[in-house]
Amino acid sequence: MTDHLSRAVISDPEQNLAIEQKESDHILPDSKMTPLRFRKRTLHETKIRTHSTLTENVLSHKLQFDGRIVSRNGRDACRELIGFFFTHDQSLTIYEYRQFGKNRTNVLPFIQKSIYSHQCGRRKGKQYRLGDFYVGATLTFLSSDHLSLPESIKENTLLKLRITNIDQIALDSLKTASMEQEDDIIIQETNDRLVFKAIQDVLKEKLHKRGVRILTGLGKYFQQLDKEGNGLLDKADFKQALKVFHLEVSEKDFESAWLILNDNGNGKVDYGEFKRGIIGEMNEYRKSYVRKAFMKLDFNKSGSVPIINIRKCYCAKKHSQVISGHSTEEEIKSSFLETLKVACSKSDEVSYGEFEDYYEGLSIGIVDDEDFVNILRTPWGI
């Protein structure tokens, strides 16, 4: 794979970048999970040409990051993105790694280089700046501004990208040189996080032992309520869902969370955002393994996997209960499939969102990252 990546080409001549990225200590803990951009290769070997007086030295003052699309659509959620934020004009650009055949990987434009602003939340309308870039940050764009996006993405008004990894050495260096001033929004965002944390702490005990069944059931329930199929529900729907799954919170906490989530004031909220706010979500390190496992199963890149393929690929041979003799491989496999199928809207296949819900629920009860990752590595061989 690395040799193929050394020949990858950015196909937009207006944005040719000379990049020689050295591997460093800011990569993910597992070398097998090293993001594509950190594997030593040259994306483009020609000199930078610009139509202005910008120099290569100025353009070199950039921050490089990995990203993923926040989506329950498997094809979109598993797209591999690489982005650059340029501090000289606070512009950014994002590319997508695309595989062509077995031996060729190209890096194609995804978000054109320009100056962009937040499209929702406390910072709506404010231009992106260096402080907005960190692992776990969400970048939002209007889908209508990017006509070349896939149709599945343009169906939604907002395109949400999550930063999954970042060049921490470059970030620290750029922050040292930056003159950015903090503002009152930081205090508001801190208070928002405290509101969500308080709710999550209340629900943590209820979710600890039933996380998988609650999260998979909740995901399926939201889909059933979503008659329009746009991923949006109103306040009454969410209150009803929390009641059905015995996840009630105080009226005060619910209203506080609703005010934050319903930032556009239209009375509807994306149920993925609601779930992430009220219940929380696994960190990006864990999420990267969930995506890798699904990508291994979804070799056709259709966004869903037939149950029969999951049965064939799931290996319970090294499961602790099998090793101890308390259960057989078939018993463990059947138990896993039975729980997973509860989340599925179709009886014969599992979507990425449903697969993610299962492991999101499982993640709640596991403190150590490596313990969680091993649960994925063992049955899926990743």
From TrEMBL:
Domain of life: Eukaryota
Molecular function via GO: calcium ion binding
Protein name: Calcyphosine 2
Biological classification of the source: Eukaryota, Metazoa, Chordata, Craniata, Vertebrata
PANTHER family, alphabetized: CALCYPHOSIN, CALCYPHOSIN-2
Keyword check for Transcription: no
Signal peptide region: none
Alphabetical keyword list: Calcium, Metal-binding, Repeat
InterPro entries from the UniProt entry: Ca-bind, CAYP2_PH, EF-hand-dom_pair, EF_hand_dom
